[in-house]
Amino acid sequence: MTAPTLTLDDLIINHTPRVPVAICLDVSGSMAGQPIAELAQGVHTLFAELYDNALARASADVAVVTFGARIDKIVDFGPVQRKPFVQMLADGLTPMGTTVNYALDLLEARKQDYKAAGVSYYQPWLILMTDGAPTDDITAAVRRTAAMASAHKLLVIPVGVGQAADLGVLSRFSPQQRPLRLRGLAFTPFFRWLSASIERVSNSTVGTEFRPFDASNARASWAL
Amino acid sequence: MDTPVIARWLAHAVEAAGTSHLERGTPCQDAALAAAGPRAAVAVLCDGAGSAPLSHEGARAVSTALRAWLPVHHRRLCALPLPDARAAITLEAQRALLERAAALGVEVRALACTLAFASVDGDSALVGNLGDGVVGGLSGGESTTLLGPMRGEFANETVFVTSRHAAEHLQLAQLPAATVDGFALMSDGAAFSLVDARTGHLARALHHLAAWCATLQPSDVADALSTSLVPLLRSRTRDDVSVALLCHVRLDLDTLLTRPRRLQQAVLGVGSALGLRNRLRVLAARLAQPEASARRVGIEVGLSTRAARGHLDALASLIVPVGDRASDVGGQQPTVRASA
Description:
The structure holds two protein chains of two kinds. Chain A is of the alpha/beta class.
């Protein structure tokens, strides 16, 4: 007699653990022109690459917030779309503190959604990308991110764009990961790297110490 | 059912590397061992930490050590207050890691692994779980998670045998063996598709496998685990996927005679076809005349008194008299009386 067989119907479908990612993008007036176009292209690359990887698509839970004249959540958490509607208009100042607080609130609310639905999740990520310096009070936001990062409750990835980006300010948000400066307008390589990093963490096993912000790795593709 | 039954624990285990390890050519970090006798059984499953370079060595060391140690110390552990039993078990697991680390010349944390186990001796069962594995129980067609995964807030956090205060994190429970038809130990990779994260119910696949333990020859159950279940589990995760099963098979003689010969041999504990034939004849004689002497049984079945006594001694631990069967208390859900 041959061994009996089991089928997929005999298994249970559980939710794939999620990687919540909040991406805060500076779209202040100084980003006008080629930078904002390259940034939009990079965001599209991120979602396309996440979508094309089955595991990353199932795990990634990405929201995109832009800050400039307004603070807009241009992509909300939810299933990854291959080409979400992304509209960016470079204008206004750099309300970084308010934006980071808003993103942290989004991440916290998303974690509550997971808990309510019985979905497990990885450490949330906050990506903060700017070409300048904050024009609002960042004290509370810095305190929140620094405390969460120190307690390993948040992974902060700070990125400066252009020489005017104040890496000193960015480093205050991220006491453990030094900010890196984008090589030129290499937004697309950055977001490609980000997609691969999300895929790697969603593929990591228990006990794995995951370090997405490997400076040498980043310098090989997008960082100075 | 008003006839005696023949009861025995049967054990199966499969440890399988996940696709991520297969692609990189790295070893499976899980180790799963199981063994069973007429009235006792033990299964141990360890999952090496992804961050520990030699965690597969740790998983092997702990599972091998506990596989040998638990049956010897089962009764003593059951008599201990739970905190003391947790400490004793954790200490034994850590001792195994320390010895292996010394032999390899590495720090013990390089061997970090989780630990899940089930041990049965007579009417008592002891289950433990330290880490993100799952210990499930099957009973009367129902199933439940007895000891679930211990995770931190995030999905890739858990505790290991090497963790600080590991003994305090070890979930441990005693329960009457009679309330359980089987135990299933799963690494987290396997549990992803075998345990409902919301309800704790076990997948139908485990019910099928438990049922097959009582109907198919053991090699077919082993094949079903390795060639059917494992590929399905691998299609859902890139993690290692390992499972250990302990199943309490209870069959009356008429039903046993309808089963494959290899299953009859496994249940009755005989290795040869001739041995099986003689043991079945002695069994039939014993059931027909429970008080008959070995000499009388030997005469009836055409064996020497010595040979008949050997078979009767072996059968003594297998035959469950009417009114003393585990199934008489079946229908109860296995309940965990205490845990960490």
